[in-house]
Amino acid sequence: MPSTEFKLFKHILKSSGYFVTRPRMSLFAALQNNPALSMKELIGRVGAHDQSSVYRNINIFEELGIVNRLSLGRNTRLELSDKFIYHHHHITCVSCGEVWALEENHVIEGQLNSIATTMGFKMLEHNLEIRGECQQCIER
Ligand SMILES: [Zn+2]
Ligand SMILES: [Zn+2]
Hints:
140 residues; three-stranded antiparallel beta sheet; three-stranded mixed beta sheet; binds zinc ion
């Protein structure tokens, strides 16, 4: 795992009085390697025997701004915050529920910003999700 992000993760935990434990590290690593996971998928990835500790740790991560809970497709999904991953949008398949992260797009970002400015806003954040059917589901 990239060390600067991992260092930041450890710093956030420690400075808030939390220990850097092996289960917390493996949750972070699983989230780093995936665009957005449901709780069930996350538990599957880390092979946790103690599901309630996963829920507890994710609540802590959310409180500390490490993780965002997103409503994507049919699921609530967990994703590392913009501190750890580049800003991106999502595309989700309504049939199979799969989620992909989209490449950064400066044209879209600029346009969203100018819409906000036109409304007299200073844009702080936004979410954008394209919902549709993925290629595999169309061909099925
Ligand atoms: Zn699909
Ligand atoms: Zn954006």
